[in-house]
Design brief:
heterodimer, A: 755 residues, alpha+beta, ten-stranded mixed β-sheet, 20 strands, 18% strand, B: 242 residues, alpha/beta, Rossmann fold, globular
């Protein structure tokens, strides 16, 4: 108790004496913890709406689409607990404010089923008294801007228009969100569906299976594939639904986690460096405390508490900030307590370990206050000798010598600057990768910037209108179909675009482009999914027809987690290929897609459905905000390291400087000596960090691309100019920061005797 | 009555690289309660080392140290620390005030450390600072004080727990003559109140204030003389050499 009181007085006094560096430490740690919590929240399923929706709707694990009502009892498969459906479903087009969106109209009974029942968020469920009522899935309704009571105009495959009215908007875990997952989903009563689509052959049947064990979905769906044989259209499981709902959060989370973990190492280094430097600066005070009767352990504890408390304060601040940001962005329930607690405990351990060593060393200070805490007697380092040899000014030689008198802190300073600089370089690499998405969309598979669906017109007419436009460089007819992969109980996307002879310029980064019928290129995700390599032959089933192609190359594929097979339209069976469902329009360089879109709409009297391609960089634009924030935090860490280094350098050399002044060094030379001492380490650290960052950034981004299915080949290092400017700015800022204490020291009257 | 401090054949050898450097070579010294002992000697004679060992700041190589009738040379570093809180006050040549703490806090620190309540510590500090004529500087930072003032604060801090033994290592070594006089007068005053003091100095005039002068040379006691002052103190002083 007695030492607590005495100790807390000392800690308070010490903290008051160095408010700035203390605040910096707190902020740096807080930034890192906030980044980590944000990362974990984004990576954790908690943010993925799928889990909640699936629980609420008592969703089905496997969804099976068949041509006719399934003739076999899918409910009899081992492991299936309950079934939903089969429901009849018909493809329609929703015409809304000049837009046309594909939709699946699903017939559901007026009493919602026990399994996979949509949960009505607004309005009511279907009512037999109002047969023209429709319940729209929420993301679809939001995308169309639908409200309760709004008209819902649909065009059936036979061209007939029907107007329904929105009675309810419901949440569902049956499929992913619109527009990432198409077609959109809407529920009607069976009578209504029969009226909209009387032809049975133009509809399909949907069955949901709820399993006892979600992990069995693979086995169960394979059983279903075998049992249904040709009747099967496609299958997907809860994993695809979940994956489609989480979307970009994962990429962002990975980025944040990378920065957070490396940043934590950097922050721990900065903290250890700051605490260690402070302890070195306080050896006399610590000796005095001991001469007054503080024990070794108490001094160590005192230091641990003081420096540890700063770290813990930072952790608390960061936890609150991270939680607040996530709660504000994703709702209060999005932050899972477990991982946050783990992060708080983990970072607390790191912080305590980081300050533990300096604290322990401080505790071992000999209690004789007179003992001078001089740096190890520095003979000239090789670098300093070199500096002397090339006749550098004396201040620079002295500074060069000073930089390395204490080897461990010198290393820590350089390393402590190198790590943040490396991360900043990586951040800039991510930035320039996004920029290259933007400036070279063709490198991420977006050679075409407009997609035209025929809509009301005949496909041939649509093609003619598109080809006539002066800004359209090329028109590629295309069709997207779902294909079943062998042994994989799920569907993959097959994108047929252009002809094999004049292929759509997919960005092939490995192998070659397909050049004739029966050849295809695949995204990384598809190669991983099927376990095939370039050169392998794959057999898929498209609506019962086999599709056998040889994969001759890998393309960068930002869609569908890279699980896309791209080939020429002529490689597809004619029934699937004709007529093309859309046309991809490559524009002349410099043409404005919006202008062309307007012209095409005008030409076709609003008959065409023209959509601009969404650049992946637009979806990822929030990453830029994150990069800026992270660079700020990393700069803080670097600054904290720098302040420690310059304070330590000053302390170590204050005595020498007095002597040097006595020998005739001008204040300007003294200043130059000090700045050189710190600056050399700064240049070393920042240079090494930039080089390390630039050399790993492309590989890192490609690694992320590989795991996310997009595939390697998207990573870009920051441009040399950007990197050079960053390095110059960082070194300049660091030197400016080092200059302030150096100026003060140079002007101060340092008595030779005071120690 | 027990001696306040006693050493028996005390030896300290520094191991500097491969060469052993003896600093103190077999010192037998006994300090009686209320005595004011000055330890003199040239630089490197081991006088500071002796005082540091008496306060447990440095470990002995061999020999015995007794404080208040108890053997203490075998104590651990922590036990020495606890002992210092209650029984030993230190004054150093360079004052060694904690730079970040105010004068008042510096003086209160030992009292708090020895378990006094904040209120008691504050009372003690006020009376000490008043006695040393520093009341108005209580809230100043040590750096704002002159050398003499800083040493007076250090003295107040050393006396805060009414230690059995006050160890002063060149307390005037860094002061001008006027401040030296002030500090010595204070030391004389506390000695008159019964404080036992061991003071290291190489200044004969400073040593003359003491009851007894112990001279060290190359780590050994070469002279131990008592200065007897006549109580009436009118006609000079007689130095009685043992």
């Amino acid at each position: 108790m007695s030492t607590t009181r005495a100790g807390s007085r000392w800690v308070r006094a010490d903290l008051r004496a160095r408010k700035g560096p203390a605040a910096l430490t707190v902020l740096a740690v807080a930034g890192i913890v906030a980044a980590l919590i944000t990362a974990v929240t984004l990576l954790e399923d908690g943010t993925n709406p799928w889990r909640g929706l699936f629980a609420q709707t008592e969703g089905a694990h496997v969804w099976i689409y068949t041509k006719d009502g399934p003739q076999v009892s899918l409910g009899g498969i081992d492991g299936v607990a309950e079934t939903a459906g089969p429901y009849r479903s018909a493809p329609v087009t929703v015409a809304q404010d000049g837009r046309r969106d594909p939709a699946a109209l699903r017939a559901m009974p007026a009493t919602p089923p026990a399994v996979a029942h949509p949960v009505v968020a607004e309005g009511r469920w279907l009512d037999p008294a109002q047969p023209d009522g429709v319940v729209v899935e929420r993301s679809f309704a939001r995308s169309l801007g639908l409200r309760i009571g709004a008209p819902f105009t649909i065009i059936a495959l036979n061209g007939g228009r029907h107007t329904l009215y929105v009675r309810g908007i419901a949440d569902s875990a049956d499929q992913g969100f619109y527009p990432e997952w198409t077609p959109g989903l809407a529920y009607v009563l069976p009578v209504m569906l029969d009226r909209v689509e009387p032809v049975q052959a133009r509809s399909e049947w949907v069955t949901g299976l709820r399993l006892d064990d979600p992990e069995a979905s693979q086995v169960v769906s394979q059983r279903a594939v075998v049992m249904l044989e040709d009747g099967l259209q496609r299958v997907y499981t809860w994993r695809e639904v979940r994956a489609s709902m989480e979307l970009d959060n994962r990429l962002l989370g990975t980025l944040l986690a990378l920065f957070g973990v490396v940043g934590l190492v950097a922050a721990a280094l900065a903290l250890a460096n700051a605490a260690g430097g402070r302890v070195l600066g306080q050896l006399r005070d610590l000796a005095t405390l001991k001469s007054m009767g503080f024990t070794k352990g108490q001094v160590a504890l005192l230091l641990l508490v003081e420096h540890g408390a700063l770290g813990l304060l930072g952790i608390a601040l960061g936890a609150v900030t991270g939680w607040g940001v996530m709660a504000a962005m994703l709702g209060p329930s999005s932050v899972a307590a477990g991982p946050v607690l783990a992060i708080v405990a983990g970072t607390a351990l790191v912080v305590l370990a980081a300050v533990g060593l300096p604290a322990w060393r401080g505790g071992r200070t000999p209690p004789i206050p007179a003992a001078p805490a001089a740096p190890p007697r520095g003979h000239l380092s090789r670098l300093a000798r070199l500096a002397l040899l090339v006749r550098l000014p004396p201040a620079l030689v002295l500074g060069t010598r000073d930089a390395f008198t204490r080897r461990v802190p010198a290393f820590l300073t350089a390393f402590g600057l190198a790590v943040p600089m490396m991360m900043i370089t990586i951040g800039l690499g991510v930035w320039s990768t996004l920029d290259s998405f933007k400036s070279h969309p063709e490198q991420v598979g977006q050679h075409a910037s407009l997609y035209v669906r025929p809509g009301k017109l005949e496909p041939a007419a649509a093609q003619r209108i598109a080809e006539r436009d002066k800004d359209v460089a090329a028109v590629y007819p295309g069709t997207d179909v779902n294909a079943l992969a062998p042994g994989e109980a799920r569907s993959v996307r097959v994108r047929a675009l252009g002809g094999s002879a004049q292929p759509y310029p997919f960005p092939v980064v490995e192998g070659r482009m397909y050049a004739r019928q029966g050849e295809a290129v695949a995204g990384q995700g598809l190669l991983d999914l099927l376990g095939v390599e370039i050169g392998d032959r794959v057999r898929l089933t498209v609506g019962g027809t086999p599709l056998i192609v040889r994969i001759v190359g890998r393309a960068v594929e930002p869609d569908q987690d890279g699980e896309v097979l791209s080939l020429g339209l002529d490689s597809l069976a004619e029934k699937d290929a004709e007529p093309p469902t859309y046309y991809a329009l490559a524009l002349q360089p410099g043409a404005d897609p919006a202008e062309v879109r307007g012209r095409l709409l005008g030409e076709s009297a609003e008959g065409l459905d023209v959509q601009a391609a969404v650049n992946p960089a637009d979806r990822l634009s929030v990453i830029r905000v994150v990069i800026v924030a992270l660079i700020a935090v990393l700069a803080l860490i670097g600054l904290a390291n720098l302040l420690t280094a310059s304070a330590l350098g000053l302390r170590d050399h204050a005595f020498d400087l007095a002597v040097l002044k006595a020998m005739g060094l001008t204040p300007r030379q003294v200043m130059a000596t000090l700045v050189t001492g710190t600056g050399l380490l700064v240049v070393l650290g920042i240079g090494a960090g930039a080089v390390a960052g630039a050399s790993v950034v492309t590989a890192l981004i490609d690694l992320q691309g590989h795991t996310s299915g997009v595939g390697a080949g998207i990573g870009r290092a920051p441009s040399p100019v950007t990197l050079a400017v960053t390095v110059v700015v960082a070194v300049g800022a660091a030197l400016a920061v080092a200059l302030i204490p150096a100026r003060r020291a140079a002007r101060a009257q340092v008595p030779v005797t005071a120690r | 009555m027990n001696a306040v401090a006693k050493t028996v054949n005390l030896v300290k050898i520094y191991q500097d690289g491969a060469v052993p450097v003896p600093a103190v070579r077999g010192v037998d010294l006994q300090v009686e309660p209320g005595e004011f002992v000055a330890v003199m000697g040239p630089s490197g004679s081991g006088k500071s080392t002796l005082v540091h060992m008496l306060g447990g700041l440095d470990t002995r190589t061999s020999g015995e140290i007794w404080l208040d009738g108890k053997r203490v040379d075998t104590l651990s570093e922590s036990a020495w620390a606890l002992l210092r809180r209650k029984k030993i006050g230190f004054v150093f040549q360079f004052f060694n005030l904690v730079a970040n703490m105010t004068v008042g806090d510096n003086v209160e620190l030992p009292a708090l450390l020895s378990g006094a309540s904040p209120k008691v510590a504050r009372r003690r500090r006020e009376s000490l600072l008043a006695a040393l004529n520093l009341t108005d500087r209580a809230d100043a930072a040590p750096a704002q004080l002159s050398g003499g003032e800083q040493q007076r604060v250090a003295l107040a801090r050393a006396l805060a727990n009414e230690p059995a033994l006050l160890l002063a290592d060149e307390p005037t070594g860094n002061l001008d003559s006027r401040n030296t006089r002030d500090v010595l007068r204070l030391l004389g005053d506390v000695h008159k109140d019964g404080q036992t003091i061991v003071m290291v100095t190489h200044d004969a005039r400073v040593a003359s204030l003491a009851d007894r002068v112990v001279s060290l040379f190359d780590g050994e006691i070469v002279d131990d003389g008592r200065i007897v002052r006549r109580r009436t103190g009118t006609a000079g002083e007689v130095i009685d050499l043992r």
